[in-house]
Amino acid sequence: MLDRLPEYIDPVHLADKRGALKGQIPLSSLDRLAEFLADDKGAVSIDLFFSREGHLPMAEGDITANLELICQNCLTAVTLPINSHIKLGIVKTIEQANRLPEAYEPLMVLEDKILLKNIIEDEILLILPSFPKHDNNCLIPLNNLNGTELFLNDEPSSPKENPFAILATLKKTGEH
Fold it and tell me: Closest by alpha carbon to 25, among 7, 49, 39, 12?
């Protein structure tokens, strides 16, 4: 096991040697993830083991992190804990990817060495919700014309008028 994570890895070579990687990758180094984050402080912890299952080189392990995302309701930070178990089959062609057992996700390797952070970042991006938001209803203050605050999720104080009520009166009078 390596004490320090390498920047580039050769997953097939690691699988042949039954290598393991354990460590942390700073969130600030994950460029594609940055646009979703409210704060890029912290790190992603990884614990990966590379091996072969028959002729298939594979990587299996865990990714954990606490991400501060931007809530799409109130635009403030919302914490999303990530604790994902991954199982990757290392392949070089689409045909190999199509033949992977169902339990494996393909890791397409076209060159000998690939960036470790790209593998981790891809897995995190697949986990992220399309619209991150708080579990509870977010209160969004809106300023009313008379200076009082309204909240987007507040219940209305008076019943709303039905916009189709005029149609009911037309139907009663027989007008078209």
Answer: 7
Q: Give residues with Cβ within 8 angstroms of 56, minimum separation 6.
A: 89, 90, 100, 104
pLDDT digits (tens, 9 = 90+) for 66-122: 999 988 888 888 999 999 999 999 999 999 999 999 999 999 998 889 999 999 999
State the CB neighbour count (10 A cutoff) for residue 145: 5
How many Å apart are CA 129 and CA 73, to the nearest integer? Answer: 13
Residue 121: φ, ψ to 5°: -65, -40
**Cβ atoms of residues 63 and 82 within 8 Å:** yes
**Which of 129, 125, 133 is closest to 34 using CA atoms?**
125
pTM for the predicted model, two decimal places:
0.72
Structure tokens at 16: 């042949």
